[in-house]
Amino acid sequence: MKLTDRSKVVSNKKMTFGERLYIPAVLKGMGITMRHAAKSVFGDGVATIQYPEEVRPRVKVWRGLHVLKRDDEGRERCTACGLCAVICPAEAITMTAAERTKDEMDLYREEKYASVYEINMLRCIFCGLCEEACPKSAIYLTDRLVPVEENRGSFVYGKDKLVEKINERIDVSERQTELQRESLEKKSLK
Ligand code: SF4
Ligand code: SF4
After folding, report:
1. Residue 133 CB less than 6 A away from ligand 2
2. Atom 7, ligand 1: residue with shortest CA distance
3. What are the domain boundaries of the chain?
4. DSSP per residue over 62-109, as a string?
């Protein structure tokens, strides 16, 4: 049974003598390459930009570097439930849960919090499933890029890099669904 019309019937017909020479196909490919090269040198359709001074605009739902959000009072939203780690197809997330003490009421919103929270950016495929799975609206992907590092260990991002700074809040409102926004407004957790 056909579920979609995207399947393509592949033809197994024998190649002609001209096709077996490959030269016409190579010349055709070279022609396309030369046409694009000439266009970028002489035409106005230059495909490159002066990165990093110039950055291409990204779509609103661009999935880049994660942020662990705080609530209005500056408390970390994450409750170390582990759902993001379970759903992560790349097994990029690890965490250690801890119990909040009386003195930590203004640091963590829930009774349980992540004392350690790490994402391995080399494993992450930026699928956004962690964002979707989070019941506390604690983790979001942002339009920021993961910077280049010189060693593999530096790509394991801990809370120092993931939790938003109290005085440098990251606006994720464009990424939130209507349902999320309504639920956060109700709970005043925006
Ligand atoms: S974006 Fe996808 S791959 Fe990356 S940490 Fe989240 S769930 Fe895992
Ligand atoms: S980020 Fe969200 S899903 Fe992941 S452990 Fe924290 S509260 Fe749970």
Report:
1. yes
2. 88
3. 16-48, 66-187
4. ---SEEE-B-TTS-B------HHHHH-TT--EEEEEEEPPGGGTTTBS
- Gap between the Cα atoms of 161 and 66, Å rounded: 9
Q: Quick one: what percent of the chain has pLDDT higher than 70? A: 91
Query: 48: which 2 tokens?
Result: 């490159």
Q: Which element (helix H / strand E) includes 119?
A: strand 112-120
Which ligand 2 atom sits nearest the alpha carbon of residue 80?
Answer: 5
- For residue 128, the tally of other CB atoms under 10 A from its CB is 15
| 187 pLDDT above the threshold of 70 | no
Tell me if 107 sits within 8 A of 115, measured CB to CB. Answer: no
pTM for the model = 0.74
Gap from CA of 130 to ligand 2 centroid (Å): 8
CATH class of 66-187: alpha beta
